[in-house]
C-alpha cells in the first residue's frame, strides 16, 4: 500500500497546492480591486463611445476627472442594453490618485469584481471532488480489505491504450477462481508486481465493486473500478508489467541519459500550461491576471487527472 499511498498524497498535494495558488492569485487581485474601489469617492458622468466589445459585450467610456484630464476606459457591465453607444455612464474614481482608475458608480455593475471572485468558488467545486476521489479510494480499500478473502490465481497484465499524442499504460490482473471463471481487475501499479511470476496465487478480499487483491508476500493492491467479465476494450494486453521501452532492451552508451520515468507528469503539466495559456489569451485577452489564472487552473487539472489515472511507470 505504500506506493499507492504516496501517489494519493501526491495527488492531493498537487490539487490543493494548485488550487491555493489559483485562489491566492485571484484573491490578491480581488482584494486590490475592492480596496481601490473603496477609495473611489468622486463621481462623474462619462459617455459610452463604443459598445458590444468582445464576447462579454463590454463598453468603452470617455470620462473626465476633477482635474480636467480625459480618460477612455473599458468597462465590463451586466446591463448591456442600458449602456449603448452615446449613453451616459456614471463613473467613480479616486480623487487623490495622479492617474485615477474608473469604476462603475452603479453598485449593481460588479462584472469585473465577479470575474475575480466567482472563479475561486468554481475552482473549489473542481478541486474538492478531485481530492474526495482519493479519500473515497482509501475508504473503499480499507472496507474491502476487512472482508473475508477467497483464493484465486492471478496473471499480471499491462494494458496499453494509444492516443493521438501518447500511449498510456495501466496494470490489470486476470483473476481466475477455483471454479474456472475469469474476470479482469484494474489496480494501481506497485513495485512488487515487477517480481511477480507469470501466474501467482492471490487472495481477493471483498465482493462486487469493492475488492482488494493480496499478493503472497502480503502486499495489497488498490483496485480501480469494478471487476470486469471481459478484457478491457481498446487496450492491448501484454503478459507482464515490466517497462517496455528502450532502457529494457539495450545497454545505453556511456553519457546517455535515459528519460525519467515521471516524464509523463511533466508532459501532462506542460499540456495543461499550454492549454491554459491559449484559453487565457483567447478568453481574457493579453491580461496577466486572467491568463495566469487559466494557466494555474489548467496545469493543476491535467496533472491531477493524470495522477488519478494511476499511470504505470
Let me know the number of strands. 12
> Pairing-aware structural class of the strands and helices?
alpha+beta
Low-confidence stretches: 241-253, 255-259
Shape field: elongated
Our Rg estimate from Cα atoms comes to: 28 Å
The description of the largest β-sheet is: 6 strands, antiparallel, barrel
Average pLDDT confidence is 85
Reading the helices and strands in chain order gives: HEEEEEHEEEEEEEHHH
Report strand %.
25-35%
Approximate helicity band: 25-40%
| The number of domains | 3
The termini sit apart by 16 Å
Name the strands of the widest sheet in spatial order.
6-7-8-11-10-9
Number of helices: 5
Transmembrane segments: 7-28, 116-136
Protein name: DUF3592 domain-containing protein
Organism: Streptomyces griseoruber
Keywords: Membrane, Transmembrane, Transmembrane helix
Walkthrough of the structure:
The protein is an alpha+beta fold and 313 residues long. It has three domains: 2-30 and 115-138 and 262-308; 41-101, no CATH class; 148-243. Helices cover 38% and strands 27% of the residues. The chain contains five helices and twelve strands. The strands form two sheets. It has a six-stranded antiparallel barrel. A hairpin with a 5-residue loop joins β2 (58-64) and β3. The longest helix is centred in the N-terminal third of the chain and has 37 residues, at 2-38. Mean pLDDT is 85; it is low at 241-253 and 255-259.
Briefly, what is this?
This protein has helices spanning 2-38, 111-145, 246-249, 263-284, 288-308; strands at residues 42-53, 58-64, 70-75, 88-93, 103-104, 149-162, 167-176, 182-187, 200-205, 212-214, 220-228, 236-238.
